[in-house]
Structure formats: C-alpha cells, structure tokens
Write a structure and sequence with these properties.
Elements: E1 2-7, H1 11-20, E2 27-30, E3 47-48, H2 59-78, E4 82-83, E5 87-91, H3 97-110, E6 116-119, H4 120-126, E7 136-140, E8 144-146, H5 148-161, E9 165-167, E10 174-178, E11 181-185, E12 190-198, H6 204-209, E13 218-228, E14 239-242, E15 252-255, E16 261-264, E17 268-269, H7 280-293, E18 302-313, E19 319-322, E20 328-332, H8 338-355, H9 381-390, E21 397-399, E22 404-405, H10 406-414, H11 420-427, H12 440-451, H13 470-480
Length: 483
C-alpha cells in the first residue's frame, strides 16, 4: 500500500510528487494519458505571473507570489526553459490608468517586487512596436515565461529518480474504501493507498464524486491561442496584458521562452471537457485585439493554433484541503495562476499532510538535480563540433525548422518520450514553421525502432491518436525495401 497516491500527472500533480519525494514516503502518480503533462499543462500559456492580478483574500492570491519566488531555484535544479522577461499591463486610454494604480497597490500589498507605472514616453521607448495610442503601463519585472511541459517532465523525472512510481494510461474509474485507506481501480491495475490527493484537473469533481463528495463542480473554460512565425521574434520583449476583464486577464501577447510569439487566449465557457477545437470566431477575436495593441501582428503569420481548457471551479478559486472523507485531499479548480503557484501549492499540500498526522522524515539521499535537454541549435559552432565529435548523431538533422538532431530525439526517448508529442515537447522537433511536415516520419521511425513497436502503432499523444494505418505502414516498408 502506498502512503500517497496522486491522481493526475499535470504540472500540479508532478509538483506535489517532486516535493513529497524529499521524504520517506511511498508515492505514486496515477495519470490517464500516455505521458504526464498531456492535459491542461501542455496547452498552458506558459506565463509565470508576478502576482498583482489575483485578489489577496483568495487562495490564488496567497500562493501566487510565493510560487513565483520559487522558480529561480527550481530552474537551477531542473533545467527547464524559464526566463524572467517582465510584464506590462497596458492602458488604452486615460480611463484605464486607475486600474493600473489599483493593480499596483494590490501587488504591493502582497509583496510583488519592482512594480512601476510607465508613462507613454517610457512605454514607447521600451516597446516601440506597440501601438502609439497606448497611454501608460504597469511594469512588473518578476513576471516570466516558461516551457510548462518541460517543467512537468523535469518534475516527474526527478520525482521518479527519488522513488516515486508513475502509472500512465491509467484513468481512475472507481475508488473503494479499505481499512486504513483506499483502492484505486483503473482498467489495467488496482492501486492501494492510505491517502489520495486529487489533482485531476478538468475531472477533479468527477474523481471527488467517486468517494461520495459533491461539494464543488468544474466548469471548463476554453482558451484558443495562436503561435506566430519565428520571423517576428523580438517584436515585443515583454509579456503584454490589457487591463483585466471580470473573468479573464484578457488577450495577451506572449514572447515565449523559445522566441516565437503567441497571442491569446480567448475565454469561452464550454460544457465539453474534451473540446479543444479552434474556431474562426476565436481567431477573429484574438487577432482583432492583438492588432489593436501591436499593429504588426496579423493572422497571416500564424504557424499553428491550439486550444486548452482551464479547470474553473464554481468557487472561482483554488480548492485545496482535506475533506469529510478521511484521507482524501482535493487540489482542484487550479486555473490561472495555477502554473505560477504550482511550487507553492506543493508546499501547501505537504503542510496539509503534516496537519493530518503524516510523519515527514527527510531523506538523506534526495537528489534535486535533472540535466536539461541538449539544445544543439542554441550552441556555438565550437560546441556543436565538440558534440558531433563525441556523438555523430548530432550531425544528423531531423527537424530542419528548429535544427533538432537525431541525438536529441534519442535523448527525448531516453527521458520518457513514448509518443510524437512526447518527442515534440522534449526536443522541439515539429514545433517550427512546417509543424512536423518534414520530421514526423523520421521521429516515428526512431520511436518504433527504440520501443520495438510496429511503425503503425506509434501515436501522436497515446490512445487512438494514430498517425498511419497498418496498411499504409506496410506499403511504406515495402517501398523502402524496393518491392
């Protein structure tokens, strides 16, 4: 029997798993997808918020600033993509300046560092490509950008190195009470645990219902986002926010960690927990607003588009705490700024376990470090030559757009990639201008060879996300053999 079973392998579940791996506990992460981070995490905007948006009397507001402050140490230990590029909340007219002042006061109450209000002259000097009609901005230097999927992969890899077990493709369909704990039933296994931590994201209310709890509901909110061509790199240098709306921070301009610019998201309520479609209406809304803030941004520069679903609870706040079912802890309703707050949420849950009487004895041999992925494209010519001399597979380019080598594909597989998306998010193969048009087949062949599977069994993201049929794969194989 495990001491703790974490249901959900998104960035929240992985953060908690890594934190608990510091202690002499037996911990399991139970995830329904083929790999961790394949739910809300991989469609996250990748923003580390400064913390001035969230009201201080909410759990979101209390955890976001602490979470933000923890990222520097985490980055040094886990080597995921992260940079503090700063944030601007821009005012489009004089009537919005009081909102900037209110946000500044709110942030200062919570300890957000370095907040400044810039006048129009300063704003134009710092971000010359923004609309000259903007009148002022609130600057927050502690905001940043992150590759959220890299963060989740690094967290779970480190947690597993420190003893945590990961069980993927294991959706929890039933939970039974047992003396001293629970039995989690999935289609392929049963897992016994003394304590359950419910980090199931969009499905957290359904997991809670499996133990008889019906005290909150999840209402998915869809956000469409659009990735722009890398030729626009440097168009804006900081995160650009409008003044916030009632239920959303609005449509943003996001210079991602890897240099591309992303615009979005929308905020559309949906009853469908699987609806990740993009729409013509969403595109119109995003680009109409983004062009208003930065006139150089147009839909013609889009290289890909996607949608994600936020796990919004009926309380519109994080729901974190023990329940009337002894040993069952909810970590639900983790919408924005959930990614920012993730490290602080992990600490918060750790302290909850102490309150429940769990003895947390620190390990003497805890290993905090994970080597980051090699990024051949970012190295100097001299460093590239050195790597090629050590491993000739660095000389074989698989993804032309992002200059990803075969050695990096093998490394992604070594570190847990079992799907095309697993390779994509670990190596960036398929993330460039052609969106996998050149490299997909080669990545599939490498996966098939390394995993010992037929080519046609390789999927995009697990489940039934097949790329080719068995017949097509056989035809391709015969063609390669000259038959």
């Amino acid at each position: 029997m495990y001491d703790v079973a974490i249901i959900g392998g998104g960035v929240i579940g992985c953060s908690i798993a890594r934190e608990l791996s510091r202690y002499r506990l037996s911990t399991a992460v139970v995830e329904q997808c083929a790999e961790v981070g394949f739910g809300t995490t991989k469609t996250n905007s990748g923003i580390i918020h400064a913390g001035h948006h969230s009201p201080p009397d909410t759990l979101k507001g209390k955890l976001v600033v602490r979470g933000n402050a923890l990222y520097d140490e985490l980055h040094s230990e886990l080597n995921f993509g992260f940079s503090r590029i700063g944030e601007l909340v821009v005012a489009q007219d004089e009537t919005e300046i009081p909102v900037l002042e209110r946000l500044k006061k709110n942030g200062e109450m919570k300890g957000v560092p370095g907040l400044e209000i810039w006048d129009q002259k300063r704003l134009r000097r710092e971000e010359p490509n923004l609309s000259h009609r903007l009148v002022a901005a609130l600057y927050a230097p502690s905001a940043g950008v992150i590759n959220p999927y890299e963060f989740a992969f690094a967290l779970i890899e480190n947690a597993m190195e420190n003893g945590v077990d990961l069980m993927v493709q294991s959706p929890v369909i039933k939970i039974k009470a047992k003396d001293g704990g629970f039995v989690l039933i999935t289609p392929n296994r049963k897992i016994e645990a003394r304590i359950i931590i419910n980090c199931a994201g969009l499905f957290a209310d359904e997991i809670a219902q499996l133990v008889g709890l019906r005290d909150f509901t999840i209402h998915p909110r869809k956000g469409e986002e659009y990735m722009l061509d890398k030729r626009l790199q440097g168009l804006v240098r900081r995160l650009i926010f409008p003044v916030p709306l009632k239920h959303s921070k609005g449509i943003l301009i996001i210079p991602t960690f890897n240099g591309t610019i992303m615009v979005g998201p929308t905020a559309q309520e949906t009853p469908d927990r699987y609806d990740v479609s993009t729409t013509y209406e969403g595109s119109e809304q995003v680009f109409r607003f983004a062009n208003k803030i930065c006139p150089s941004i147009t839909a013609q520069d889009t290289i890909t588009e996607f949608a994600g679903l936020r796990s919004v609870s009926n309380t519109d706040d994080f729901i974190i705490g023990p329940t009337e079912v002894n040993g069952f802890i909810n970590v639900a309703g983790i919408q924005s700024p959930g990614l920012t707050a993730a490290p602080a949420i992990a600490e918060y849950v750790r302290d909850l376990l102490c309150d429940l009487g769990v003895v947390l004895e620190e390990k003497d041999n805890f290993k905090p470090y994970v080597p980051g992925p090699s990024r051949f494209a970012n190295l100097s010519i001299g460093e590239q030559k050195r790597l090629i001399a050590e491993n000739p597979l660095f000389a074989k380019v698989v993804c032309r757009c992002e200059m990803v080598t075969e050695a990096e594909i093998h490394s992604a597989i070594d570190h847990g990639a079992r799907t095309l998306d697993g390779i994509k998010f670990r190596s960036r193969a398929g993330m460039g201008r052609c969106q996998g048009g050149f490299c997909t087949a080669r990545c599939m062949h490498l996966l098939a060879e390394r995993l010992g599977r037929p080519f046609h069994e390789i999927t995009k993201r697990g489940g039934d996300s097949w790329m080719v049929t068995e017949m097509a794969a056989t035809r391709d194989h015969r063609a390669k053999r000259g038959k």
